[in-house]
Amino acid sequence: MGAGPSAPKDEQMEELKETTDESVQRAAAAIAQADVLLLLTGAGWSADSGLSVYKDVADVQAYRERDLTYSKICEPHWLEDDPELFFGFWGGCFNDYRETREHEGYHIVKRWRDALFDRTKTSRTLAARHGGAAQAFYSFTSNVDAHHLRVFGEAEVRECHGNSETWQCSDRACHTFAESADAPSRWAAPSEFRFAVDGETHNAPDGAPSQPAAAPAGKPQHGFVGNHPKCPRCAKCMRPSILMFADSDWCDDQAQRDRWDAWQSAVEEQAVAQKGGTAPLRVAILEVGAGGNVTTIRNLAETTAESINGKGGVATLIRVNPDLPLADSNRRQASTISLPSYGLAAVKKIDAAMTALRKQGEAAVATADASPLPLRTVPIVPVESNGGDGSGSGRGGGVDPTTGLKPGEIAPSSPEQLLKIRETFDAIDTDGSGTLDREEVKNAALQLGRCFIGKDLDDAMAAMDCDGNGEVDFDEFCEWWEGGGKLSASERFDLKWAQFGARMDQVLSSALAGAGIRNPA
Ligand SMILES: [Zn+2]
């Protein structure tokens, strides 16, 4: 385990930049030698196509005047409270995603996929295990622009936050009913359709869209008639099937999720099958543009690499990120090639290096050094036991080398740290009520050095707000922050239960003592 994404120190960044060329060579070798390639992408990858992330989309005068931050706009309740705002924001994103061409990086990776991971011995063995159409390649993304589906096959793409091209009924009951009746519950937006969005207000009034959908005779009603698309079944408004913030109505694409789970299991099974043989399964994990805001992709990258290595394979994580290229967990740095770069630029460099390497012939590819370059400024502290169970949480009792704490143990804060947390809490709690609501918790976490949105924030609130009244007091906040708030999403999830127990002890001992003294355990 370890702290969440933290920016490298100056001397670390300096060394990473000095060694970038060598790391690019090794990344190219790792991909060229791999049996399996997993592409993991976050917002930074889409940004290379010129697309704005939500934060920038929302940074306009009309929203500022209404004091609407992007996380507020991205909440689904606007569909009911202010549909013009809702369809203005999501319709604007939809239009932009459609008008934007995916960048060259997609096509470079597609070339690698076709040349090295399609219809190979490994891909056939994997297919026998997962029973699907995916080869020895998968693209997993948190981006919702659906651009991966333009380039890669449907059977090899997982969009963990949904996509803007697929729409669902806003009424979960309608959706659930359809699924149980095996009727359509998600609809693809027609290709011609564009929302009419006012350039000044960014609202999308009901009425005519800017480009209507063609309605060929005999085609079923698709719901995209007006500027506010309606569910073809119940005529309530539809919404993009995207995981928004504070969103309990999003319906994931279960089939897509199942395909990914099956493929991932097949890769792990294959690593076990080849363990101890002449050649271990080699897996290259290329992670691009996954920053510290949404940690799903970073966690997945590191835990997948660790899991495969723990099962006898050789997994190398190539982390491409201009600000946060290091492994979030120190011990995982040993299997991480860190490239401090923007995504497209790095992919082009790796491609050039790989082309040069492959030109030298098979022997050169096979003998090229594909191991992560050891970094002088990032010493790896070996973990004595617990060879990695793949859960990333080390439930077996692995001790964090940097904190000396076991999973579930709560780090005691120094008086200075407590003061800092108290000051932050009081500064956020402007009305002096002694409690923070959801938005305030997010701001407090941000000021203490971490950004929580969406599911992460939901998890945090669920972990802290025991009585579910939507408010968090200082003790709850402080204990959560010390024990788990600084950790990654999966680690926080594990800690949630330890936290719950600790808080119960605290509540009981407080009640017994008749005073609000914190129980140190
Ligand atoms: Zn409906």
Précis, in short:
With 521 residues, the protein is α/β, with parallel strands linked by helices.
Describe this structure in words.
The chain is of the alpha/beta class and 521 residues long. The chain folds into three domains: 226 residues, TPP-binding domain (Rossmann fold, 3-Layer(aba) Sandwich); 119 residues, no CATH class; 97 residues, Orthogonal Bundle (Recoverin, domain 1). A six-stranded parallel beta sheet has the order 3-2-1-7-8-9, with helices on both faces. A three-stranded antiparallel beta sheet has the order 5-4-6, sandwiched between helices. Helix 2 crosses helix 15, helix 10 crosses helix 13 and helix 20 runs antiparallel to helix 21. It is globular. The C terminus is likely disordered. The structure holds zinc ion (ZN). The site of zinc ion (ZN) has 7 residues, from loops. The site of zinc ion has 7 residues, from loops.
